[in-house]
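Take a look at my tokenised protein here and describe the backbone shape.
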Amino acid sequence: MTQYTPNQKVEQWLASFSETLQSESPEQAAEHFEEGGFWRDLVAMTWNIKTMEGHEEIRDMLSKTAADRRPHNWQLLEDATEQDGVVEAWITFETSDALGKGQLRLRDGKAWTLLTTMQELREFPEKRKFLRPKGAQHGASKSRQTWLEARQQEERELGYTRQPYCVIIGGGQGGIGLGARLRQLDVPTIVIERNPNPGDSWRNRYKSLCLHDPVWYDHMPYLPFPDHWPVFCPKDKIGDWLEMYTKIMELNYWSSTECTSASYDEANQEWVVNVIRDGEHITLRPTQLVMATGMSGMPNIPDIPGMETFKGEQHHSSKHPGGEAYKGKKCIVLGANNSAHDICAALWENDADVTMIQRSSTHIIKSDTLMDLALGGLYSEEAVQNGVTTEKADLTFASLPYRVMPEFHKPVYEQAREQDADFYNRLEKAGFMLDFGDDGSGLFLKYLRRGSGYYIDVGASELVAQGEIKLKSGVTIERINPNSVTLTDGTELPADLIVYATGFGSMNGWAARIISQEVADKVGKCWGLGSDTTKDPGPWEGELRNMWKPTQQENLWFHGGNLHQSRHYSLYLALQLKARMEGLHTPVYGLQEVHHLS
């Protein structure tokens, strides 16, 4: 019996797969997958972000897209590997107008998972590496402009005498990263930010805020953090980096600018975006509008009887200035997720008397454990040493369909539970309500499903376990009195400060505020997978709702997520926008239906 090497197995599969795709019946290529196999496509085949599950869905997709997309030239990129009966391979391919990259997993000769991603539009590549601009204009010319003169002219004209093709509302890391991608693709873009400076959305948060993800996970497009950058970056350092980044990447960044309204002009197929820039009213008319207002929508502030009678200070966590002003004060923090823990710890450090009110259970994972067990293989110094580039890590992460992701994560969090058993026991003994997700799949699935319900522990949990941060769990605030709060168990706690660490609504709340409730409802809920778990109602969607892909509102897009997602998915959103600007044929397969409004 012939023993095939992993490379031979992949090459045989690719040859047969490619032949079927180019035949009269390309949909028959579905037979190259396991019965329950997955094809996850990031724009390459579907002009969408879409996962096809099983033969029937793959067949349907191919029957509607293969003739137009013409996928061909499937090649093994580097040596394939085999472990536990699974062959893994990095591959390249082409379509009618783009170059692609992907990852393939084979079991017993059939595809278990296939990831296909568009990497570059053939006719419109980014001008980098061999295509980088010369910079200097050699030779004599009476019309010569310096780089500075050209930049100043662009800043004078764009948005005034010349309209941008795209406007991005929101100038945090998401808007900045997408702006950089579009800049490299020569898509005229303006990023709008109401703060005075890039990075202010980080600088304005509470003093102790830092990234809870490690540096290898958080690089921006094109400009990775330097090798000496701290593992967990403090907020003000991130703010400075973003400000520097906007300058170096030559973004048309309108700070101190607020978008007051936007509406879609059906007749002209463009947006009418009204902004106030440094006190001046300006109307922009871009073709494409991107909401990059953060993964979250408007702050959730509960309506509690007696709020208006409170004599102390009360604010949402997004407005919390830090713990310095509250020494010796009685502080109540409603909530028990990331912000609540950070704020409680900062108040404790400033000698406040602080009580955390935990309404429902929270997933806790120690930062070191998360790095060691969950992220280390892809995002760590060891991973870099092993040749795992940021791009390779991102694509590996993306290659796992959301449907099977929980099964990969459960063992990791079972191991964490065993490894940190003493830590968890002490937390529960203090009365803290712990969970590991509805199905034990831990942090990242909770984040994808609902964007809340967890804390990456960088020290505050120890304070809770020791009773330094007081805890009331399984209750909430029933009413607020002039100098105290009454809890649902009848307890009354004196209070000088109440912080509502109660999270945020869906991103389409911003669409409702800036555009209209009608458009927000037309688009529907942003984020979540339809997993039918807590705060993520079904039906199953298979991808994050409305993120980085076409929505039910023509020419309206949503961009957000953590730094990792923002970096990776900004590529696919930028390519979709560039293709439309250049008039390429972009038929969207499987436009997401709306099942939930917010």
Observations:
- Residues 317 and 532 are 28 Å apart (CA to CA).
